[in-house]
Amino acid sequence: MSSDPSAASVAPARPRFGVNYTPRIGWFHAWHDLDLDAVGEDLRAISELGLDHVRIFPLWPLLQPNRTLIRPRALDDVRAVVDVAASVDLDVVVDVVQGHLSSFDFVPSWLLTWHRRNMFTDPEVVGSIAALVRELGARLDGAPNLLGLSLGNEINQFSASNHPDPNHLEVAQAEAWTRTMLDAARTAVPGGLHTVSNYDAAWFMDDHAFTPDQSASLGDATVVHSWIFDGTGQRYGARSYEVEHRAEYYLELARGFSPAPDRPLWLQEVGAPRSILGEQDVAWFVQRTVETAMDCPDLYGITWWCSHDVSTELADFPPLEHTLGLIDSHGRIKESGAALSEAVAAARHAPLPDPRGRAIELHVGPDPLLQRSAAAPGGSVFEEWMEASRAGERPTITVVRDHAPARAGDTRTGGAAATR
Hints:
Blueprint: E1 16-20, H1 36-48, E2 53-56, H2 60-63, H3 72-87, E3 91-96, E4 100-101, E5 104-105, H4 123-140, E6 146-151, H5 171-188, E7 195-196, H6 201-204, H7 212-217, E8 222-226, H8 232-236, H9 241-244, H10 246-257, E9 265-270, H11 279-293, E10 299-305, H12 335-347, E11 359-364, H13 380-390, E12 396-401
Parallel strand pairs: 1-2, 1-10, 2-3, 3-6, 6-7, 8-9, 9-10, 11-12
Antiparallel strand pairs: 4-5
């Protein structure tokens, strides 16, 4: 596979369904002293929900505690989890250089405080991160259930203007960083499906260096992370049409930027946040999110966030993080887990969708930093799409490239979701 858009991969005949794996005991801190028996119990429960893959998150500081030290034992631990997944018939996507999970940052000390360096532009740092991608990929290559690598769980948040300590960079530098990491992944795992896992600032924030064009042309599928706490739920309400169709809209927005008509679309993160939804809304939201996403052609898959609740014994998490799992911290299937299992079973037999209907135009300027906010919740394109969808038009989105020079001061900034 290639990051060249002319060689983009094609979506599978039927979408895949999986979950982002959050260990039940110890959360991601479980990587410090890995218990493969506990991992096996977790993954078996996921498989029994009828899911076919997991996305896993080895912690960056454990893999690479020093810029020139990549721990062989840590790489072995990742391979061991992949092998356990194979024993319960689950394929695996391995997230490398995730950096940020559920409001906590996992950045190694050699990039912080007295050693502060730009993780995206410093040549030595970029080379060392690419070395980690290559070495972990090489350790995983040959695992029959490895789907590929996802690069940086929303790591673009570290460059966002609303981050408390951003790593500043330009659009060309963001693209160069992404290409470097994808090249490293492909060197190590030539046959893998490798993707870029940006959060929605790349799609909605006008001044963000990671752009929709990068997400829609680099890597082997276009990835979106759809969260209704991005302003959708707050603006329109928990049971609103906009909340119900949020993920579907996002997938069609991603399609609009794609240079290849059949490029796979991957809903790689979507969850049911209780900060927006009441418990009585959760099963409805799970089922309708799957059903509406299934109306998008070229869907690679849906990967739910997340497998297990964060235990309330762990401190300082936002409250919603203790409720997002399909399985509770005692190992019991929740209503959301049962709802997803039912929705997936139905989706596996649903007819594949026809091509979409009317294309809503999204005008973007010659400078890729401009005009993305029109697509954000509350923006003109978002509103027009939802209105057409209500009318039964099954709309999609087409991107119109305007070539007039930007007016001085025309730098609107769109709202972007809090990162995960």
